[in-house]
Automatic annotation (TrEMBL):
SUPFAM superfamilies: alpha/beta-Hydrolases
InterPro entries named among the record's database cross-references: AB_hydrolase, AB_hydrolase_1, AB_hydrolase_fold
A Gene Ontology molecular function term of the record: hydrolase activity
Claim: Hydrolase is one of the keywords in the record: yes
Record key words, sorted: Hydrolase
Domain AB hydrolase-1: 22-241
Species of origin: Methylocella silvestris (strain DSM 15510 / CIP 108128 / LMG 27833 / NCIMB 13906 / BL2)
Name of this chain's protein: Alpha/beta hydrolase fold protein
Chain intervals for the UniProt region annotation (Disordered): 267-360
Basic residues bias locations: 289-346
Amino acid sequence: MSEIIVAGEPFNIRLDGDADAPVLILAHQLGGALQVWDRLAPALSERFRVLRYDSRGHGSSVANPGPYSIAGLARDAIGLLDALQIEKAHWIGLSMGAIVGQAAMLLAPARIGRAVLANTAAQLGTPDLWNARISAMRADGGAGIASATQERWFTPEFCEAEPAAVKAVMDDFRATPVEGYASACGALRDVDLREAIRSISHETLVIVGARDPSAPPALGAYVASVIEGARLVTLETSHISPVEDVEGFLEATLEFLTAPEPVARPALAAGKTAPRRKSLQRVLAGRAPAKKAPAKKAAAKKAPAKKAPAKKSAAKKTAPKKSAAKKAVSVKKGTKKPGGSRRKGARGSLRTVRASKLKQ
């Protein structure tokens, strides 16, 4: 770990991995510290230059009195990139760290590559909830609210199975400076990015915990639904998913971060326009394009206009029956074709990450 100065203020950071590898920022949760990533960092640093840092008001970084803002916390992260002369970095954020990541993509889109947003939301909780938490922290400190926090952060089964891992995270929580925690709560209370994130165009993976009471899955699903092309992965965890399911979290993030870049569509030749696509409603309803309907009606009106001899008209009366029969057969066959209007499903199964890569 080392200290770096950003705008005259000290931040605690740690860099791991090849200096020539793509940079990956890891941003921790409210009341956390960079150590929350300890069990993932060894495997991630095999592919990336991993930059971990203690957020303002947390760990060993500056803990000045508030108020803080999410935009200000995002500027801290961009300031770290500037100080380290890093042009661009991917982002993995947990809870508060993922909300800061959303703000960083909005404030400095060219500086952020792909983003993993875990156990988070675009707007979280109510002002009353955050004000009560600020009061409790100032009255009792981290030790006084640690028990209730642990119940929200981890499932009972994980607490029983991995007590040492839970203790390490909760020790960092208890050590969080009171003013730093309270000021970060104020930043979370005041932020609402629900509309702003619609403009994000970064490749994004959203991870939710199926048993997360702090950031319920529906809140993360909303983030994934409004960021164009974002993917959603659900893990069977509570709030601190990268600790509770190391393998599942690592598997999802590595597949996403190392996937090939999407192939760009070829540009259209000058003077040409893109073909018109059917609307989603029309595809789901199985309706033909609107332009074809008038053509059929016009043909039906023209037939009666010509008066033919009685014998020929009788002969012609049988023709529509045959064409109607053919048309009926064609419709029947069409309905039997599988997947006619189905969209492609989710990606294939995630690649398996060897357990030997994980730090025990």
